[in-house]
Amino acid sequence: MRDGAIGEGASWPWTGYRLAINGNSGKARCEPNWSWQPLPLPDYDLWYAVKGQGEMRINGTRHEVRPGACFIFRPGDVVEASQHQDRPLTVLYCHFLLADESDGSGNGWRDPLPEQRCVYIRDTYRLEPLLHQLVDMSAWAEEEEANGTEFDLLLKLILTRWLKEMDRQHEPARDYYVDRLIQAVHNEIRFRLTEVIDYDEVVAQSGLSARYVSSLMKRHTGLTLKETITKLRMERAAHLLGETSMSVTEVAEALAYSDIYTFSKLFKRYHGCSPSEARRLRTGGARL
Hints:
This protein is an alpha+beta fold. Helix content is about 40%, strand content about 20%.
């Protein structure tokens, strides 16, 4: 992992820095004869391709432009861009300033951003909504101090995710569609823990069969749909026994177990102690 990376144990890179909107921002579907050759940039520019294909040159270095390409230009950068005529670009862009406010003097200012200019975002599902919010917000962020603070925090979140994607660019590609599908199934299960769960209803929004979803889950998480339901029920059971006054029998019934023996057996398999022992841990001030 590079210096300053956002990972376990890494420090927050934006401490002492403030980000402010600097006028020009927006969403654009580039015209048929569009090409971009601005003067050397006076500020920072966050530039993201939503659709289309093209080419970007930054200080002479070529980059492919495709959906998910996210650029951060820096002051003084010389930029040239063009698009494929049969695949016009749709882009989001936002100019901003970065100031060091650590001691109020600006002495020892250091740019916290890496030299890298382009990252290809693989999990666009998470980042694109934030970028749309940022561009919409920039239209009124300068009007009030509170709005400027919100802009600062939102852009820092976006840049933090940009840095994370940069650190992950050499990792094997993940199937983010499957990740989102599995997360949606998990959420649906959590809403239904108190009832007898119908597998087809849990996966209905995916448009896929329960058997197929179960095989995907097994491949990506190591657990089938049935095993996932049990795991989430046991996690909820531990919470109820540890943080409520519900009895073991009440917890079992609340989680749709009519057989207390089956519930206790599964609980011990997952947590290493019986539900009654877990309750004693609670009364003794400990947690599972």
